[in-house]
Amino acid sequence: MAKKTDSQSKAIAGRAAQPVSGSHALDFGKAWTYAPSPEATDHIKLDKRYELFIGGAWKKPRAGKYFSTISPSTEEKLADVAEADAHDVDLAVTAARTAFDKYWSKMPGRERAKYIYRIARAIQEKARELAIVESMNGGKPIKESRDVDVPLAAAHFFYHAGWADKLDYAFQGRRARPLGVAGQIIPWNFPLLMAAWKIAPALACGNTVVLKPAETTPLTALLLAKLIEECELPPGVVNIITGAGPTGAALVNHPDVNKVAFTGSTDVGKRIQRAVAGTNKRLTLELGGKAANIIFADAPLDQAVEGIVSGIYFNQGHVCCAGSRLLVEESVHDVIVRKLTDRIATLRVGDPLDKNTDVGAINSKMQLTKIQELVKAGEDEGSTRVSAACALPAKGFWFPPTFFTDVAQSSRIAREEIFGPVLSILTFRTPDEAIEKANNTMYGLSAGVWTDKGAKIFWMGQRLKAGVIWGNTYNKFDPTSPFGGFKESGFGREGGRQGLAAYVELEG
Ligand code: NAI
Ligand code: MG
After folding, report:
1. Is the CB of 263 inside a 6 Å radius of any atom of ligand 1?
2. Any idea which ligand is nearest the CA of 264?
3. How much distance in Å is there from the Cα of 346 to the middle of ligand 2?
């Protein structure tokens, strides 16, 4: 645990313009303010109500139930969305099975590839609309959805289209057969991108799909269903059904599903693992994380501070691989805290549709409550809180960029996934101590290392128990590199050649 040094208390206290109930809230003025620059939404035509996309058609849910989906930044209702029950799930799985038997498993890879390319291009053509709807429904800044989520979603389809006719070369002399029907369940933090991560490799390998988006963010997956409809895929190859946990559970438990792919909380991941135990369903899980972002004294510190900011504050920390534990070499602790204090005061928090916004809305009331509860636990456990003193909008769900110093390894804020713009700062003195602290977690999804020495990055990389390790950068993604975790972060990989393995049976 980092002892609070005198110079550090001064650094914090000296800048504490308005301490807020035991915390230090900082506001030393924005360097400049920008005029509002919101994306226009008048060209966005959302339906009042969305049905279930099953067998290439839009079907009403049998029970006639709908739920509303809102914008977390305004709390305004955006649309009503169908709630699929077990019967609707059965229709979707049956449609996927029929499509598998009749069309998709028989189609040569080069033909499947054409459809997947078509989806990729359709996403590019509708990029603007998809980005805006993603920010409206999920609360993330338009900068992120426009520059990261949507282009990467298209890239995943392009990349996997390229594999569809080359599977014979992916597995060194072995023949790859599709598994059948894939049941896929995704979370709310990257709604369109996670749909792409799941659907693209499944289709490339010759499987058909039933996908369920998260209940708070169904809209871009439903827009994707419309694009897939326009791309004229054979009916039932991709089915998109909406609903909450029970809908997901019905999909996992359906006897005719051959593979389950899940991204979400570790709790639900464990429940799914229990549900498929004893069946011959294949399973991949991408669960939580508590990534260590490790800053050595010889790192380019200003660049590292930018990496910290993009690792935890952009996207409101709603990233499973967020760099939520900062491990700083003791000798640069105070300077990093000072630079970070200055930097978070300039982050623009607010309207996700404004092109200047850095930090958007928290995805849901439930998630905001969880963040508030964990931050309170941090304060109660004696850590020192620093929050940017930004004005938060009256409506919607918001949390200011925040970090904690004086954090013990045993404290909840150092161990539990907060999934919000909240960073816990710890220190280390030697590379060995950095490794020990970084690996001291039940998770193992990602890590970051910042140093001037390439050799140190490799040395650390060999010892860190994390599926993805970034060197002098953070949160960079590419469809060609496999992504996935160790320990309670799950198993299986998505992306790259390794990601294909989750969707094929190998023969020979
Ligand atoms: P969740 O794990 O409950 O939801 C993820 C998906 O699973 C949603 O589509 C949901 O409808 C579905 N689901 C829920 N219960 C299910 C069940 N019994 N069977 C099958 N599917 C089910 O995550 P939630 O409640 O939204 O968030 C809770 C915490 O999980 C967050 O605070 C965060 O810490 C973590 N989380 C991690 C994510 C990641 O990418 N690793 C993504 C989202 C949340
Ligand atoms: Mg849940």
Report:
1. yes
2. 1
3. 33
* pLDDT score at 115: 98
- What are the residue ranges spanned by the domains of the chain? 7-35+289-471, 54-287+485-507
Where does 7-35+289-471 sit in CATH, by number?
3.40.309.10
> From atom 15 of ligand 1, which residue's Cα is the shortest distance away?
245
Residue type, 361: A
Classify 208 in phi/psi space as left (phi over 0), alpha (psi -120 to 50) or beta.
beta
Closest approach atom of ligand 1 to CA 272: 19
Protein residue closest via CA to atom 29 of ligand 1: 265
Catalytically annotated residues = 286, 320
Instruction: Pick the more confident residue, 26 or 75.
Output: 75
User: Which residue's alpha carbon is at the smallest distance from atom 27 of ligand 1?
Assistant: 265
For 493-505, the pLDDT digits (tens) are 999 999 999 999 9
- The whole-angstrom distance between residue 422's C-alpha and the CA centroid of its chain comes to 16
Tell me the pLDDT tens digit for each residue of 6-25.
443 333 333 333 334 434 44
**CA diameter of the chain:** 72
Would you say residue 336 has pLDDT above 50? Answer: yes
Q: Counting runs of H as helices and runs of E as strands, what totals does the chain give?
A: 18, 22
pTM: 0.94
Q: In sequence order, what are the residues at sequence separation of 6 or more whose Cβ sits closer than 8 angstroms to the Cβ of residue 51?
A: 58, 59, 60, 61, 82
- 228's CB contacts (< 8 A; 6+ apart) are 53, 119, 122, 238
Single-letter amino acid, residue 408:
A
Per-residue HEC secondary structure of 307-374 comes to HHHHHHCHHHHCCCCCCCEEEEEHHHHHHHHHHHHHHHHCCCECCCCECCCCECCCCCHHHHHHHHHH
Q: Is the CB–ligand 1 distance for residue 485 below 6 Å?
A: no
Please calculate the CA angle 292-473-265 and round it to the nearest 5 degrees. Answer: 45
pLDDT at residue 18, rounded to an integer? 37
Classify burial at 68, counting beta carbons within 10 Å of its beta carbon; exposed 0-12, middle 13-18, buried 19 or more.
exposed
Tens of pLDDT, residues 96-135:
999 999 999 999 999 999 999 999 999 999 999 999 999 9
- Nearest ligand, measured from the Cα of 263: 1
C-alpha 285 – ligand 1 centre gap (Å): 11
Q: Which CATH architecture has domain 54-287+485-507?
A: 3-Layer(aba) Sandwich (3.40)
Q: Does residue 252 have its Cβ closer than 6 Å to ligand 1?
A: yes
Tell me what pLDDT residue 172 has. Answer: 85
Q: Is 185 in the pocket of ligand 1 (CB under 6 A)?
A: yes
Whose C-alpha lies nearest to ligand 1, atom 13? 245
Which bound ligand lies closest to the C-alpha atom of 269?
1
Q: How far is the CA of 265 from the centre of ligand 2 (A)?
A: 7
CA distance 187 to 195: 9
Instruction: State if residue 287 touches ligand 1 by the CB under 6 angstroms criterion.
Output: yes
Report whether residue 193 contacts ligand 1, using a CB cutoff of 6 Å. no
